[in-house]
């Protein structure tokens, strides 16, 4: 059974969307999750604590802050594959396979199977396990505009609870996204460089949120039921502003001028229309809509370090996800530092450290000709407001960058 939970992949959505899912014969209830889900994550950003709202100087501006499109002076095309996984996901997967093998031995009663699954789940009580991957993403940005196609952004989250009996909560997001962004300058309003931008997004989402008790796992054979799928689409927009003030170049202001302080504001999912409309590609029956993308506000700031030889860098502080139902000050705080080194235009890299939701992050990037590799590790809070829980993630992204 657990083997199918980890390996069953069903293709229903266009653009190579695959929905990762399992179901049980018995009626199941929605799982309980408190993690803040983000549809798009930059590995570069996660390495510096996801403090990226005012930093966005690459293709990720399309999704992090479209106002940065107004400040581009050249084009960039990025084609990529990415994967992320919890630090203990491998152990959980192996123990799940062992529990399956033991429970499916000939001659066992339902009571004995229940004990096997119950003991397995109790060993991981209170823990969260995640995997996340993206396939064949393509983003093209030019001065003032950008276009992106994300065929598959999938996040699979498992969380172990212990209520009447141990239970496995599973939540899956499988998104196909098409986005177009535009940015421009606002001149003459206030001293300095003021930019604005908007990214329009079409998102088709496959979704499931289910809870399986140890009893369900023990007495029911597993199979895929279309009734457990939710799918829908939405059209929404992100609105962004970037502001770099014009400062005096004399006295103490000279050092602030070198730092090029920049402030940012982004309203994400401004329409918050939800996924109530559906093409019925997965389930032709009327079911509840997938979890919506919440309207949130991100505030950011960036400060550049003086360049020295082949090195440069920046520091950033963000307050993100304001207005989200699961928002708290700790979850909303993000800070990071990034150091660049550039030998030539085709050989360069970055080192990063930061804090994401109260947990340390680190990252590294290297680019040789058009091949770029990004690595990052970060922690996030997956617990409740009164009982924070740490989930450590490791991410890798390989891309071609033109």
Structure write-up:
This protein is an alpha+beta fold and 402 residues long. It has a single domain, classed as Porin (Beta Barrel), CATH 2.40.160. Helices cover 15% and strands 49% of the residues. The chain contains 8 helices and 16 strands. The chain has helices at residues 2-7, 43-47, 61-64, 89-103, 110-123, 214-219, 253-259, 329-332; strands at 9-13, 17-20, 76-86, 128-142, 145-162, 166-185, 192-213, 230-245, 262-268, 296-308, 311-322, 333-344, 347-356, 359-368, 371-381, 390-401. It has a 14-stranded antiparallel barrel with strand order 3-4-5-6-7-8-9-10-11-12-13-14-15-16. A hairpin with a 3-residue loop joins strand 5 (145-162) and strand 6 (166-185). The longest helix has 15 residues, at 89-103. Residues 1-28 have low confidence and may be disordered.
| Count of individual helical segments | 8
- Compute the separation of the termini in Å: 44 Å
Mean pLDDT: 86
CATH architecture descriptor text = Beta Barrel
Largest sheet entry:
14 strands, antiparallel, barrel
Number of domains: 1
Number of strands: 16
Radius of gyration: 23 Å
The helicity comes to: 10-25%
CATH class category label: Mainly Beta
Low-confidence stretches: 1-28
Structural class: alpha+beta
Which features characterize this protein?
402 residues; alpha+beta; two-stranded antiparallel sheet; 49% strand; disordered N terminus
Concise summary:
The protein has 402 residues and is of the alpha+beta class. It has a single domain (2-401), classed as Porin (Beta Barrel). The chain contains eight helices and 16 strands.
């Amino acid at each position: 059974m657990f083997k199918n939970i980890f390996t069953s992949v069903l293709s229903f959505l266009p653009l190579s969307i695959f929905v990762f899912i399992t179901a049980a014969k018995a009626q199941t209830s929605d799982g309980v999750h408190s993690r803040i889900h983000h549809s798009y994550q930059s590995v570069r950003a996660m390495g510096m604590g996801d403090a990226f709202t005012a930093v966005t100087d690459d293709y990720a501006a399309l999704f992090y802050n479209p106002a940065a499109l107004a400040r581009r002076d050249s084009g960039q095309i990025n084609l990529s594959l990415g994967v992320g996984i919890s630090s203990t996901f491998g152990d959980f997967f192996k123990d799940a396979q062992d529990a399956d093998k033991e429970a499916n031995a000939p001659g066992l009663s339902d009571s004995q199977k229940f004990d096997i699954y119950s003991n397995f789940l109790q060993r991981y009580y209170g823990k969260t396990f995640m995997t996340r991957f993206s396939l064949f993403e393509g983003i093209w940005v030019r001065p003032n505009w950008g276009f992106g196609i994300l065929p598959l952004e999938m996040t699979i989250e498992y969380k172990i609870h212990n209520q009447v009996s141990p239970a496995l909560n599973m939540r899956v997001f499988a998104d196909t996204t098409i986005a177009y962004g535009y940015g421009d300058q606002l001149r003459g309003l206030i001293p300095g460089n003021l930019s604005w931008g908007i990214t329009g997004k079409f998102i088709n989402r496959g979704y499931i949120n289910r809870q399986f008790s140890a009893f369900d796992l023990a007495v029911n054979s597993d199979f895929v039921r279309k009734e457990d799928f939710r799918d829908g689409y939405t059209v929404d927009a992100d609105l962004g502003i970037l502001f770099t003030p014009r400062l005096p170049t004399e006295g103490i202001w000279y050092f602030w001028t070198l730092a090029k302080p920049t402030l940012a504001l982004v309203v994400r999912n401004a329409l918050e229309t939800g996924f109530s409309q559906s093409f019925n590609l997965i389930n032709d029956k009327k079911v509840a809509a997938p979890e919506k993308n919440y309207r949130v506000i991100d505030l950011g700031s960036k400060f550049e370090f003086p360049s020295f030889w082949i090195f440069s860098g920046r520091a950033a502080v963000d307050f993100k996800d304001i207005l989200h139902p699961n928002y708290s000050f700790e979850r909303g705080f993000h800070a990071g530092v990034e150091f660049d080194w550039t030998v030539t235009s085709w050989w360069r890299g970055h080192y990063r450290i930061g804090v994401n939701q109260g947990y340390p992050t680190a990252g590294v990037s290297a680019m040789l000709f058009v091949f770029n590799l990004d690595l990052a590790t970060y922690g996030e809070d997956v617990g409740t407001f009164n009982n924070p829980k740490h989930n450590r993630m490791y991410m890798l992204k390989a891309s071609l960058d033109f």
